[in-house]
Amino acid sequence: MSGCEHLARFCNSNPQRGFPKEDLVTLSILDFVTKLAEIEAEIELGQRSVLERAARRVQQEAKREIGHYQQAAGPFPKWPKLADKTVEEKTRLGFAPPDNPLKRTGEMRDSIGYHVNDEGTEAEIGANGVVPVVQELGAPARGIPARDFLGRAVVRKAPEFVADAAEMLKRSLKR
To answer: What is the SS3 assignment for 72?
Structure first.
């Protein structure tokens, strides 16, 4: 008895443990390997698209967070209120409203971008300059608490891009 015949017999005799009889397809080993190669190619094509959408969503969410106090998300704590001296300085310099965390001119927010590598397997999301790094990680020696806007955006958007990836895989496997 071949492996396919054994699988078909197992599924037909154990419907609660296998596939319904009408869903079974008999394939030769060559047809099976060919189908796997097709699925792999489809997944590779879909992967870049899913990654692009994920990176764009994180970028947009991170930009949206700038200027607004954020609640706890995943491992990231709620943002603390701005120090009085920071609000006073922003008021003196004419930044209005002064009590908007991480926002002065909008330059940091506008610099948030992303890049997907040529293979479509990795995305980098970040902002230009030293200030975004200090804000994301904090500088305790200078009294600057972490106000993580990039990591928090990933946590908030992760369910969406996991759903995108699952949908892409489902479509690839149905073909």
So the answer is: coil
Beta bridge partners of 115: 124
Q: DSSP state, 170?
A: H
* Angle, vertex CA 31, rays to CA 165 and CA 48, nearest 5: 20
Alpha carbon of 175 to those of 6, 132, 165, 172: distances in Å?
Answer: 24, 44, 16, 6
pTM of this prediction? 0.76
Residues 19, 25, 30, 33, CA torsion sign: negative
> How many angstroms separate the CA atoms of 139 and 145, rounded?
6
- 105-143 per-position pLDDT tens digit: 899 999 999 999 998 899 999 999 999 999 999 999 999
CA–CA separation, 170 vs 175, rounded Å? 9
How far apart CA 50 and CA 53 sit, in angstroms, is 5
Beta strands at 113-116 and 123-126: parallel, antiparallel or unpaired: antiparallel
The terminus-to-terminus CA distance of the chain in angstroms comes to 28
- Give the pLDDT confidence of 28-53 residue by residue, as tens digits: 888 888 888 888 888 888 889 999 99
Which stretch of DSSP H or E encloses residue 79? Answer: none
Helix (H, G, I), strand (E, B), or coil: what is residue 1?
coil
Structure tokens at 157: 């958007």
Question: Alpha-carbon distance 95 to 119, whole Å?
Answer: 43
**Cα 112 → chain centroid:** 15
